[in-house]
Amino acid sequence: MTIVNYQKKKILIHDGLEADFLNKGGEVPCPCCDAIVHFGLYNSLDFDEIKQEKKIKMVSKMRGVKLTGSEILEFNYKDSPLRLSEKKCSSGLHDILVIFTYKEIQPARYESYLIGVFDSKDL
Known about the structure:
Layout: E1 11-16, H1 18-24, E2 26-29, E3 36-39, E4 45-46, H2 52-59, E5 65-68, E6 74-77, E7 80-88, E8 95-101, E9 103-106, E10 109-119
Antiparallel strand pairs: 1-10, 2-3, 4-7, 5-6, 6-7, 7-8, 8-10, 9-10
């Protein structure tokens, strides 16, 4: 099965106060239907804690993601750790994986990029 990253461009989805992103989260269109996928920092996982096989497949489809670290290796995008949110679309038919970053860039200022959207059945 072919793995497709439906998020072709990296998009800045948040630049501001932490509470704004925590309260609102983000949303993307479901790549499989006309529904919406809501995601956020709550209930998201550290990307580096998922299965190695799944991680490698997704990283091969995301531009700009680098493996960094000397003792502990982890994947980053623009020096920000990756987060993974697995949610059903609003129609309840598809399980979608959303990969995003979240990092404090100045005191009380956070930045988040959307870098990957995958249909979990492809993985």
